[in-house]
Design goal:
The longest helix has 19 residues. The chain has two domains: about 80 residues; about 230 residues, NAD(P)-binding Rossmann-like Domain (Rossmann fold, 3-Layer(aba) Sandwich). Helix 5 runs parallel beside helix 6. The two termini are about 40 Å apart. Helices cover about 30% and strands about 15% of the residues. It is of the alpha/beta class and about 350 residues long. The strands form three sheets. The protein has an eight-stranded mixed beta sheet, with helices on one face. It has a three-stranded antiparallel beta sheet with strand order 2-3-4, with helices on one face. A two-stranded antiparallel ribbon has the order 1-5.
Length: about 350
């Protein structure tokens, strides 16, 4: 196959010399490639191109003795290893992330077959995500999503900012006493002015509201409350519960109605293992009215990052890991662990027929 110029090295790829006639492309074991059997001029040509920062691979300068046939062989190997891609399309890619996505584009380019990370950012810019519960973890999730380029974030929490909310995520001492949602809108406007943060009651997230989110994140404390998710499931809105417990946080399951296990499946399996669980869970839910909910720093930080990563995976067209597992993070080590989730035979959620959602994007 004849590979003609111009093409470009996949953005974000590093090129390293390993020894005589050997170059290593990339360091991530998922896609790093060793190119061996190179002549000295060939290796020098490839390294020179990489270091120059030129956007396109092209015929080598005259100082490198690399015959045209050999160029084609090397280029074919690079193509087969998915290390070179065609130039980006001329289509305009609108982004809202800081510095026009300069921080995220190289990494996102490594994850796409076409190497066009800005196309991923453009897709995020058209997306809408709702977040209910804006303590440290919820507002931290909002900040990560906004910084990653999500264009519209719907914020729901009428409770006042507490002194224990300050710091992580962005609340300041001056925010104490203000509505969390109002403070979060101000925070996002300061950090990423292009992102549209809206204060909205979660009841507006479902049909017939045309601006409902593509994903809803619901932050809870101590225990799931399945009744909160019925409207989202019935409306076909993907949603992600996040539960902060005594010394851990559980992210998931990421529910894609009719396709993956739901919150009631999780609760059903828990009750099968512990027949007294429904009684215990009811008491934990009642505690929520009487006890101030605080969110430990490490749990809130790691939980926010993982919750945001699952939402971004979905928006990017991938399957979130939490779609079939709950991700549990416990202090002190805060190392995520997976607990697989399957549909419960008495739930019936897998029999749902979900109509395609009307896009609420721009």
């Amino acid at each position: 196959m004849d590979h003609t110029f111009p093409v470009r090295l996949r953005p974000g790829t590093v090129v390293l010399r390993r020894g005589p006639g050997e170059l290593q492309y990339g360091t991530d074991e998922r896609w790093s490639v060793l190119l061996s059997g190179l002549g000295e001029d060939e290796a020098a040509w490839l390294l020179d191109h990489h270091r120059s920062g030129r956007p396109l691979l092209g015929p080598p300068p005259a100082r490198y003795a690399v015959p045209a046939e050999r160029q084609q062989v090397i280029l074919r190997h690079l193509h087969e290893a998915l290390l070179v891609v065609d130039p980006p399309s001329a289509a305009s890619h609108e982004t809202v992330s800081p510095a026009h996505g300069a921080a995220d584009t190289p990494t996102l380019s490594l994850l796409r077959p076409d190497g066009d990370g800005r196309a991923t950012l453009a897709r995020r810019a058209r997306a809408r995500v709702g977040i209910e519960g804006l303590g440290r973890l919820g507002v931290g999730t909002a900040v990560v999503l906004a910084t990653a380029g999500v264009g519209t974030i719907l914020l729901d929490d009428s409770a006042p900012v507490q002194a224990t909310d300050v710091g992580l995520g962005g609340y300041r001492t001056r925010d104490v006493g203000r509505s969390r949602a109002e403070a979060a809108v101000r925070l996002l406007a300061d950090l990423v002015p292009e992102v549209r943060g809206h204060l909205v009651g979660s009841s507006r997230w479902v049909s017939p509201h045309v601006g409902r989110p593509e994903v809803a994140v619901v932050v809870e404390h101590r225990v799931l409350r399945p009744e909160r998710y019925g409207r989202l499931t019935g409306d076909g809105t993907p949603h992600l519960p996040v539960v902060l417990r005594e010394a851990d946080v559980v992210v998931g399951p990421f529910v894609r109605p009719g396709r993956t296990p739901c919150v009631r499946c999780v609760e059903g399996h828990r009750a099968d293992l512990d027949p007294q669980w429904p009684l215990v869970a009811d008491q934990l839910r009642n505690l929520q009215r009487d006890v101030l909910d605080v969110e430990e720093t490490t749990l809130a930080a790691v939980g926010a990052a993982i919750a945001a990563s699952q939402v971004l995976a979905h928006l990017d067209g991938l399957t979130p890991r939490a779609a079939t597992a709950c991700i549990e993070i416990a202090v002190p080590d805060a190392v995520p662990r997976l607990r697989e989730v399957v549909s419960h035979p008495r739930c019936g959620c897998s029999d749902l027929t979900v109509m395609p959602a009307t896009s609420g994007g721009r």
